[in-house]
Amino acid sequence: MLVHGTFGDSTNWSYIKPQLEAKGYRTFAIDYGRGGTGDIRESARQLAVFVDGVLARTGAAKVDIVGHSQGGMMPRYFIKNLGGATKVDDLVGLSSSNHGTDTPLAAASDERLCAACRQQARGSEFLTSLNAGDETPGDVDYTVVQTRYDEVVTPYTSAFLDGATNVLLQDKCPRDISEHLTIMVDQNAVQWIQNALGRPGPADPGFTPRCV
User: Fold this and answer.
1) Domain presence at residue 211
2) Which of 1, 60, 145, 146 lies 20 to 30 Å from 154 when distance is taken between CA atoms?
3) In a domain, 209, yes or no
4) CA 143, 175, 210: angle at the middle one, nearest 5?
5) Which pairs count as long-range contacts for 18-25, CB under 8 Å and 24+ apart, including other chains?
6) In-domain check, residue 84
7) Closest CA to 99 of 46, 146, 34
8) What total number of domains does the chain contain?
9) Per residue in 147-186, pLDDT tens?
10) Domain extent at residue 177
């Protein structure tokens, strides 16, 4: 399952989706929350309904989720609070807003226009609750793929989770210059996604992608 970020939609996966399908994965991309701007708790409820539909349609026991930005963080609410821990095998986040952003614009956003923006401000009530206790609950394999040049999830380390395989692209590929949006068309990131989905457990920290 492919979950877009704030101000995004399901078409954001046009680079990654065909590459996963070429590896034999069946993909389903969700549109949620008025372009990802709505209350994240309600978006997670929409995700829960979507997951149940995919499971019923495919007969699968669990789904894998690949999400970008809010789409890598919001499923954690589903996993923690809405029964998703028994329905998700892998959660792979690209530039996930797991601990929010210290960008002042997020906290200053009009909640009527973008509730999710304010909820993703670092230290928000929503994120404080989401991250309380175990950050990676359930029998789910968590992988976070992040870039040093993320200008939206700031500081970039706020994407990382305790208990996850946390990947910084530049550790293995120093010349990778992807940022928050271009990580969606980054071939090194795609290789990390494929590594995470193609093996038991989260991505292998010892994996070395072909740096392109």
Assistant:
1) no
2) 1
3) no
4) 60
5) 19/190, 19/194, 20/66, 20/193, 20/194, 20/197, 23/194, 23/198, 25/64, 25/197
6) yes
7) 146
8) 1
9) 999 999 999 999 999 999 999 999 999 999 999 999 999 9
10) 2-197
